[in-house]
Backbone:
């Protein structure tokens, strides 16, 4: 049964604008908000989590976390566990306690990524954005992703989580044609969540753009489960 009084907090992947969730939000019968970026130039992981929590007026909410949003979600669970009804990871990185986004990656990525971030910053080349994030999208959407991509502070990638005691409902939506997080990696992250709710969707890394209707349906099924 759908509880329309539920509120959803959407956490976007790195560099992605809030509009990526627009079509999904329109299809869901819930109040929702997309977490804003913190205003500090060198914002920490905690800054991201606090900005997300402050964006929700309701007492409790369900987190839908995409990509690096899984790391932010972990910090939200540490800071405000009493406010979280559930967590749905969408092709998201799920760190262990003490891990960062980078250190949660498999070898050799966790060794190469810190150097790449230091030398090249956090904005990938346009070709990499199109090849990874843009996979499965039409040209218009891919162009908009490239144009609107925002550089994030390195701290978002490097700050380590500190664990949490939250043990509520959790689920994972696996994107099976993903070039950013391969399906096998997602399945490993899904295994770290306490919940046993899991579905797959045949899209690339941005299912909310490639198939917003089915993404919304999956979110609704998770909330109703």
Residues:
């Amino acid at each position: 049964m759908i509880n329309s009084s539920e509120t959803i907090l959407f956490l976007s992947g790195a560099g992605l604008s809030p509009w990526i969730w627009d079509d999904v939000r329109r299809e869901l019968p819930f109040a929702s908000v997309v977490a804003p970026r913190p205003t500090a130039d060198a914002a920490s992981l905690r800054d991201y989590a606090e900005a997300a929590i402050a964006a929700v007026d309701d007492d409790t909410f369900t987190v839908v976390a995409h990509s690096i949003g899984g790391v932010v979600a972990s910090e939200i669970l540490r800071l405000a566990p009493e406010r979280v009804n559930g967590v749905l990871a969408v092709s998201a990185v799920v760190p262990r306690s003490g891990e960062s986004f980078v250190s949660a990656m498999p070898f050799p990525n966790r060794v190469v990524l810190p150097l790449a971030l230091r030398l090249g910053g956090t904005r990938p080349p346009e070709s990499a954005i199109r090849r990874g994030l843009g996979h499965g999208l039409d040209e218009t959407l891919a162009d908009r992703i490239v144009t609107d991509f925002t550089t994030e502070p390195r701290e978002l990638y490097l700050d380590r989580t500190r664990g949490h005691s939250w043990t509520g409902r959790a689920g994972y939506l696996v994107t099976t044609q993903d070039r950013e997080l391969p399906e096998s990696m997602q399945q490993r992250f899904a295994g770290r969540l306490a919940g046993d709710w899991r579905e797959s969707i045949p899209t690339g890394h941005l299912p909310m753009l490639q198939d917003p209707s089915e993404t919304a349906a999956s979110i609704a099924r998770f909330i109703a489960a």
